[in-house]
Amino acid sequence: MVTKFEETGSLNVCSGRGKKPVSTEAIEKVALQVEEDKSSNVLDSTSVRRVAEALDLPRSTVQKIMRNTSSFLARLQVDPEWPWNILWTDEAHFHLDRSVNTHNCRIWETDNPHSTLRVPLHSPKVTVWCGFSASFILGPYFFEELGAGGPVTCSVTGQRYASLLRNKIIPDLQAHQCLSRIIFMQDGAPPHITRCVKDVLKHHFTEERVISRQFRHLWPPRSPDLNPCDLWLWGHLKQLVSCYQPKTLPDLKDSISRHVLNISQNILRSTVEHAMLP
Question: What pTM does this model have?
Answer without folding.
Answer: 0.69
